[in-house]
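At this stage, I put together one protein's amino acid sequence and its backbone structure tokens, which the following lines show:
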Amino acid sequence: MDAVHGFLREETWAAPIKVLHNDEEARPGYESMKRHEYNEVPDTLHAKVQVLAQLLRNSTNAIVYTGAGISTASGIKDYATKMESSTIARNRPKITSNMSALPTFAHHAVTALHREEIVKYWIQQNHDGLPQKAGFPQKYINEIHGAWYDPSNPVVKFSGDLRDDYFEDILEWEERTDLCIAIGTSLSGMNCDRVVETVGEKARHGQEGCLGAVIIGIQRTRLDNISALRIFAPIDDVMELLLSALSIESRVPRALVPQPYDVPLIPEVTEGTTACFGKVAENTFQIPYSKETGLLQKNGNGTIIDLSTGAKVKLTAGPYEGDVGTVEGRTATGHYKLRFTHNTKKKSGKTVREQRLRTMGFWWVDGAVKGEVHMFPVMNVSSRAPPTRSTKMVKKKK
């Protein structure tokens, strides 16, 4: 019964009810289960959420590990459920593009848990920026599979390599966490599933101080049998009950009602003020980061980052580190648009120069002004063209 309830199961808990039968694989070609969907009996669901609440109270280093399932209520489709036939497809908003999606109740709920210092960190498999739109600080997020709102962290292909610095961070949290809550992920064999698997195995074998893995979602996963607690229910429903159990439900927007997000006001740096870092002109900011590397500097005046239209910038990290691009303005919701030229390798093995329009979330500037992020994704480069090298034997006089 561990695969149904987790090893913290109570004898009175009823088995979840199958609400959708689908014999297809959730993720063909990976270590996934069938697409059957399940829901808890109400009494059992409430009892399990109470156990989850107590686990969070007892934890000192709880993290969340999220997959596509946490974002389906925003209108973004996922791989595993095939939304058109899934029970979670009902009453979901239709969006014009994935970039226009708004955070779900669950995103706001996890943000509230972090604000209360209950959840310490968020490992995000998705690329959608919805945690940050809900107000979760960039400093405490690892977007291990790439991000639509970080130009230095493009989406990683299934056959690709994870960024070394982000993966080292994963390994650190794998050892540090005492409680990992996996939300909306099929756990189908991705490298980073290790954060769930390691803490789950430690707790299952009785390692002192380790609380284990909690898995929340409507489909079975390959790691259900090592979970401390397994909850089969829509994610927003679980999170609403959880916040109620922890007496913080009034501090977030109501369930299933998407909330708009606000671009934070950056303090201005003016003569005679105590603010060292902030806005110095429209789309221009003083930030405590190295102009050469983009790394946070604890001492000194930092540097000016010019993000006005036409400004030249270079990437400070990632697979295209050093590539130069141009700021092309901002989106209607405040994010920066940057166009880069990259050397990209085709399947044929040929390398070609290609342009890519990338987006940088407004939260990067907010985090940088506060000195909260480890590295800023871009830094300015001179827009002056380099001198040309003449091959003429005699130069013309000016």
In short: Residues 278-380 form one domain. The chain has two domains: 2-251, 278-380.
